[in-house]
Design brief:
Layout: E1 3-5, H1 6-12, E2 19-21, E3 30-38, E4 48-56, E5 68-71, H2 83-89, E6 99-102, H3 124-127, H4 130-145, H5 157-171, E7 176-181, H6 183-194, E8 199-205, H7 214-235, H8 237-242, H9 246-255, E9 259-264, E10 271-276, H10 278-288, H11 292-295, H12 298-306, H13 311-317, H14 331-341, H15 360-367, E11 389-394, H16 402-412, E12 416-421, H17 432-443, H18 447-452
Parallel strand pairs: 1-3, 5-6, 5-7, 7-8, 8-11, 11-12
Antiparallel strand pairs: 2-3, 3-4, 4-6, 9-10
């Protein structure tokens, strides 16, 4: 793999020479490369890191000059690690445009800040213990600080978007299109702020603005998504008939915590005993809310819990994790971003009815000892957009619901469009008709045509019907 120094690139006007490579889950050969970057941009002659990227080359001989850059979520996901599913999600772009996957510094192959994920087969009481998670973060911090690239103050979104522009320069692209998901939307907004002339179009799926305190917003947003689930069940005849006391059962389950429970581990099948706390239960519910398909099974799981059986709820909460094919996070990069940008101190987080402070308490404890990078006050501002920007929101998303995108679209101004799919969860690019609209938005020849693209094809998608457990009979 060729390592490219930016200084030489700028001086010589050279473009990157890329080496053929194979990426997991990608049918065709890709091209891989890296650029050398200063760990601390203010000290360019000291520690340097390699920023790795991969290119899924356009299939057409006469390709478009503006590639599509995908910005991953988390924070902490590896874009290259998502190459397999992304090659299918973004396949239509790949006919005429290169697709570029950059491992943001601290993730994947780019100076990774990863202490290794715990085995998902560990006993449930260990996996769910918040105090153990704090101690793991302390151990992770000690390990990462011993690395040559272990100055954890140098992994902010602003610094990372300087890296992204270095990749653009290395590839010789005058302008690029951004497609971003979840935390990646914050990164895209920062790139658009810092390098507005280099962006042609931007798509933000599940918007996490720079002024959003992610852990502190978690309780409010999860509460809204859960309340919507309860209301939907009450209004759906089949759900109401099958779960007539859902809200009463929910209150009873909460009132009975903490309590010892005996359950089968969802992966090992071994019977285990643990003390189930309110925070553990709410974390399970919040995870299940990310996808409408898993959320549709929550009423049945909550009724089971009210009867003292928690296996269904625990199984739902593990359905979207790394052990089931979800994307793991680089913990060190995750905390470095969150602690610098989302928990700089200040007011106590708001309390929600059921979810309390959400994830804020855990993050505040970790961020009290985690090194924090500097964040310029301008980072939290979203200036008017000079190019078309399409924002996508799921109406029942428990993490990045429409309320966050609404203030961003106002700030971006007349060239921004916000599309809400009322019954969708976290991430709309999985919906085929939305992907088609995104493609037409980016592929449109001029800005006026792009802004006229109707991305509302999925507005009428209903919630999945109430889940009926196998063997329990047809829904009423």
């Amino acid at each position: 793999m060729l390592v490219l120094g930016l200084g030489a690139l700028a001086a010589q006007g050279a473009t990157s020479e890329l080496a053929p490579c194979r990426l997991q889950g990608v049918e065709h050969e890709a091209l891989c490369g890296s650029v050398a970057r200063a760990l601390d941009p203010t000290q360019p002659d000291r520690v340097r890191i390699e920023l790795h990227f991969a290119v899924l080359p356009a299939l057409a001989r006469n390709k478009k000059p503006d590639p599509v850059f995908f910005l991953a979520g988390g924070p902490g996901q590896s874009a290259i690690g998502l190459a397999g599913p992304l090659s299918r999600l973004l396949a239509r772009f790949g006919h005429r445009r290169d697709i570029v996957l950059v491992d943001q510094r601290g993730t994947g192959r780019s100076a990774p800040l990863d202490c290794g994920a715990e085995p998902a087969t560990l006993p449930l009481r260990e996996l769910a213990d918040p105090q153990r998670q704090v101690e793991q973060a302390r151990a992770c911090l000690r390990k990462l600080q011993a690395l040559p690239h272990g100055d954890l103050r140098r992994y902010t979104t602003t610094v990372a978007m300087g890296d992204l522009d270095a990749v653009r320069q290395a590839l010789g692209a005058e302008r690029i299109n951004l497609v971003a998901a979840s935390y990646g939307t914050r990164a895209a907004l920062e790139y658009l702020r810092l390098h507005p002339q280099q962006v042609r179009r931007a798509v933000l799926d599940g918007v996490a603005p720079p002024d959003m305190a992610l852990p502190e917003a978690s309780a409010t947003d999860a509460q809204a998504a859960f309340d919507a689930l309860l209301q939907a069940c009450a209004q759906e005849a089949a759900c109401q008939a099958r779960h007539p006391q859902l809200q009463e059962n929910w209150r009873a389950v909460l009132a009975g915590l903490p309590r010892p429970v005996r359950v089968a581990h969802p992966l090992t099948g071994r019977d285990e005993e643990l003390l189930l706390t309110r925070d553990m239960l709410l974390a399970m519910v919040r995870t299940a809310l990310y996808s409408p398909a898993t959320a549709s099974a929550l009423p049945a799981a909550l009724d089971e819990a009210a009867a003292g059986r928690f296996a269904a709820l625990i199984g739902l909460s593990s359905a979207l994790g790394p052990a089931r094919g979800g994307a793991a996070l680089a913990q060190g990069m995750h905390f470095s971003v969150i602690c610098a940008e989302d928990l700089p101190g200040g007011n106590a987080p708001p309390q929600s009815k059921d979810f309390g402070q959400g994830l804020a308490a855990l993050y505040r404890e970790v961020c009290a000892f985690w090194p924090r990078g500097e964040v310029d006050s301008a980072f939290r501002q979203v200036p008017p957009a000079g190019v078309p920007v399409l924002l996508l929101s799921g109406g029942i998303d428990p993490a990045t619901p429409p309320r966050h995108a609404e203030r961003v679209v106002r700030a971006l101004g007349s060239k921004a469009r916000h599309e809400v799919v009322p019954q969708a969860g976290h991430g709309l690019l999985a919906l085929p008709c939305v992907r088609d609209a995104v493609f037409r938005f980016i592929d449109a020849a001029d800005e006026a045509d792009a802004l006229r693209v109707d991305a509302g094809c999925a507005r009428g998608i209903p919630r999945p019907p109430v889940f009926v457990p196998p063997g329990s009979g047809a829904a009423p």
